Amino acid sequence: MAKEVAVVVTDLVEDVEYTEPVEAIKAAGHNVTTIGFEEGTVEGKHGTKITIDKSIADVKPEDFDALFIPGGFSPDQLRADQRFVDFTKVFLAKNKLTASICHGPQLMIQTGLVHGRTMTSYLTVQPDLYYAGARIEDESVVIDGNLITSREPKDIPAFNEAVVKALA
């Protein structure tokens, strides 16, 4: 059965950390809604144009089965907006599938709900997760229940496999 997957993103996302997982999720038969500050287009760090399907003001976490947070500079911008923090918090609090790669966990840190979770991220975000109370494993993919985290672009194939399996 097709799942509804929310992807939160804004300008300066790491292009392949958005495009490749979204492609894998869609190829597995699931629906993706790309959510940003407002409808329109944002641009990745390397120039990829990404269509924003819905504004954060127009969505509810209850409408989705899973959340995906790509990396780059996008999550740091999103976590400055409480609407994205609150949206993410619902997925973590209700133990709904939440997946992120690279700098994506920055948005999760802002929720206050990473304490006690086992996670990974890009090297420079790992200390932030640690100080927020997460257990860090420096692996290509770390799965803690319905929480899937990954480190960087070279880990995308393993990340995609884990996310698609979890959605099945």
Automatic annotation (TrEMBL):
Stretches that traverse the bilayer: none
Family the UniProt entry places it in: Belongs to the peptidase C56 family.
Protein's name according to its UniProt entry: Type 1 glutamine amidotransferase domain-containing protein
This protein's UniProt keywords: Glutamine amidotransferase
Organism of provenance: Weissella sagaensis
Record CDD domains: GATase1_PfpI_like (cd03134)
InterPro entries tied to this protein: C56_PfpI-like (IPR006286), Class_I_gatase-like (IPR029062), DJ-1/PfpI (IPR002818)
Residues in DJ-1/PfpI domain copies: 3-165
